[in-house]
Amino acid sequence: MSSLPTVIDVAIMSSASPGFEHSIYRVSAGHQLTIKFRNSLPEEGVNLSLLISSANDPAIAPVAGKAGLGNIIMSKALYVADPVPTGGRAAFRVDALVAGAYVLQIRERLLRFAAQLIAE
C-alpha cells in the first residue's frame, strides 16, 4: 500500500513562472485523487483552469521556432478543471492515474505555469 497522498494542495502563488507553490507533486497511483486548488494570484479578475496531461505529450507545448509562444490541444488533457477566480478555492476529484509522469498546467497562462505530477 502506497504512503503517498490521495489529496494534495495545489496553489498558484505568483504571476511569475513557474507560478505553482511547488515544482513537483507526488501522489498515489491507482487511487482517485482530490486536488484542493487555490488561485492566490495577486492580480484581480484572473480565472485559472488547472489541466493534467502526460508529461510526454502535454496539452500545452511550445511552438517550434517561436520563442515564448505556446500551443494548446485540449484533447491531450486527461483532466480539465473548472476555472477558479482570483482568491478562490475549489476541490476537484480526478480519476485514478496510472503510475507515471504528468504535468500540471494552467490553461490561461500557456507556457508560464507548469509543475510535475508524479503518480507512483
Description:
The chain is mostly beta strands and 120 residues long. It contains no helices and 10 strands. Strands 2-10-9-4-7 form a 5-stranded mixed beta sheet, with no helix packed on it. The chain has a 3-stranded mixed beta sheet with strand order 1-3-8, with no helix packed on it. It has a two-stranded antiparallel sheet with strand order 5-6. It is globular, with a radius of gyration of 14 Å. 28% of the residues are buried.
Q: Would you kindly provide a brief summary of this structure?
A:
The protein has 120 residues and is mainly β. Helix content is 0%, strand content 42%.
How is this fold's topology laid out?
Blueprint: E1 7-12, E2 24-27, E3 33-39, E4 50-54, E5 60-62, E6 70-72, E7 77-80, E8 89-94, E9 100-106, E10 114-119
Parallel strand pairs: 1-3, 2-10
Antiparallel strand pairs: 3-8, 4-7, 4-9, 5-6, 9-10
- What spatial order of strands do you see in the largest sheet? 2-10-9-4-7
Largest sheet: 5 strands, mixed
Number of domains: 1
Q: How do the helices and strands follow one another from N- to C-terminus?
A: EEEEEEEEEE
- Give the integer mean of the pLDDT values: 90
According to CATH, the fold-level topology is Immunoglobulin-like
Q: What's the architecture in CATH terms?
A: Sandwich
CATH homology-level superfamily: Cupredoxins -  blue copper proteins
Structural class: mainly beta
Number of helices: 0
Distance between the termini: 11 Å
Shape: globular
Q: Estimate percent helicity.
A: under 10%
**How many runs of DSSP E, i.e. beta strands?**
10
